[in-house]
Design goal:
The protein is α/β, with parallel strands linked by helices. The chain has 12 helices and 18 strands. 37% of the residues lie in helices and 27% in strands. The strands form 4 sheets. The chain has an 8-stranded mixed β-sheet. A 6-stranded mixed β-sheet has the order 15-14-11-16-17-18, sandwiched between helices. The chain has a two-stranded antiparallel sheet with strand order 9-10. A hairpin with a 6-residue loop joins strand 7 (119-131) and strand 8.
Length: 429
């Protein structure tokens, strides 16, 4: 800016006094000397420290802070640019403005970032730039960091007040009492009350005691629940800023936590072109961290899933009747047909719950008022895809599959409700 401002002065000098041209180079040298002097006055950096959480959750804010030991009295401004994994920040770069702390004399600053994918992200380098008191000269230093930040599945649904209130009430028997009478395992006889199912009346006991008695049942425990994740291309597409697979993992872990609290056994299964992981069954809520760690290892694959191989392999590993919760999506009728054929083989032996997130983008395009032929063609195409999707889900229902379709922000509670409904009906054991 100073050099640009000096350009008109140089023109005036050249026009008014050509013999004084030497003043212009002298002015440029003076400016260069001021830049070098200001950079020298900025002083050296005695250290740079990065403060980052070792663990965070996908889709949740994580704060990364930097502390630099600079000569505070002569430093004009300090900035840091961090090079990190793109899953931690868009573009793999994070800029932080530092400010001087009057108590410690150090320069500190921080920024919030929202990880977009699970896994381990590295913060490998930092570039620190600080200016002198005039602000025209600066120094820059490159620092190797190699700081790892582990991004875990999002457990906000598990920590939600609604779910915690449900689990707290169930421990005191409130919800357990409401669920009595709907399971398959006999518990006790109780006096018949108006409103009870007449099919549960025990006529022999009633005749023996000359009073109507009804059988009460309780839900079976120790059921096997398998959460199967499609890690293929369609599940890696983002919805509200996060891949569908991450939304599915959060919903599954919340349901798994409820299942473990209810005495059931839970396992995770991931597949794409081939089976990826199959965890041992976890039976204690204190081992929930094992499921969380296994879910963090579910990778993203830009390929179509092989439902035939994946579901056949899963069926071969299950020795008893189980509830299989499949998180998947489909983009074309061909892949949907293969999926339906593979799922139909499981229904005869297991209870299958298919979970899909409703496509808000397609619904918005289909319902929007077209302003031209281009928008009209898009609306027609979107409506056709939604109709195909509805047909596929209806075919799954016809073969005996329970289907849950809900928006991404309600999918967790929808899966929990579906699981509890299946369990209350005694369909797993």
């Amino acid at each position: 800016m100073l050099a640009a401002l000096a350009a008109p002065v140089a023109l005036v000098v050249a026009a008014a006094a050509p013999a004084a041209w030497v003043a212009v180079p002298a002015l440029g040298l003076t400016l260069l000397a001021l830049v070098l002097l200001d950079a020298w006055a900025a002083g050296p950096c005695h250290g740079l420290r990065l403060i980052a959480p070792g663990d965070c959750e996908v889709g949740e804010e994580a704060r990364i802070a930097v502390i630099a030991d600079l000569p505070g009295s002569v430093t004009g401004r300090a900035d840091v640019a961090l090079s990190l994994d793109p899953r931690l920040a868009d573009g793999g770069r994070l800029d932080i403005r530092l400010r001087r702390d009057g108590e410690t004399g150090t320069w500190q600053g921080g920024a919030l970032t929202v990880p977009s994918r699970r896994g381990t992200g590295l913060i490998d380098k930092a570039w620190l730039r600080w200016t002198g008191p005039l602000g025209i000269g600066a120094r820059q230093r490159e620092v190797d960091l190699a700081e790892a930040l582990r991004v875990w599945p999002n457990l906000s649904t598990v920590r939600s007040p609604a779910l915690q209130a449900y689990l707290r009430d169930s421990q005191f028997g409130l919800i357990a009492r409401r669920m009595r009478g709907e399971g398959t395992q006999f518990e006790a006889l109780a006096e018949y009350q108006p409103g009870m199912d007449r099919r549960r009346i025990d006529w022999k006991a009633s005749a023996r005691h000359m009073h109507l008695y009804a059988k009460e049942f309780e839900n079976e425990r120790n059921n096997q629940i398998v959460f199967a994740f499609d890690c293929g291309q369609s599940m890696c597409e983002p919805v509200a800023g996060l891949p569908r697979i991450d939304r599915a993992v959060s919903a599954a872990l919340a349901t798994a936590y409820v299942a473990l609290k209810g005495g059931d056994r839970v396992a995770l299964y991931g597949f794409a072109a081939r089976p990826e992981i199959f965890t041992p069954f976890v039976a204690d809520a204190r081992d929930f961290h094992r499921l969380q760690r296994a879910a963090a290892g579910l990778d993203y694959h830009a390929q179509e899933p092989n439902f035939t191989l994946a579901l056949a392999s899963l069926a071969g590993r299950l020795a008893r009747r189980s509830l299989i919760v499949i998180f998947s999506d489909f983009t074309d009728p061909t892949s949907a047909e293969l999926m339906i054929e593979s799922v139909s083989r499981l229904v005869s032996r297991h209870v299958v719950l298919f979970v899909a997130m409703s496509d808000a983008e397609l619904e918005e395009i289909a319902e929007a008022e077209p302003e031209g032929l281009g928008e009209l063609a898009m609306a027609v195409s979107a409506d056709g895809l939604l109709r195909q999707r509805a047909v596929v889900l209806q075919r799954l229902r016809q073969i005996g599959v329970d289907v849950v379709e809900a928006p991404w922000n309600h999918i967790g509670m929808a899966v929990i409700d579906a699981y509890l409904k299946i369990k209350r009906g005694g369909r797993i054991g």
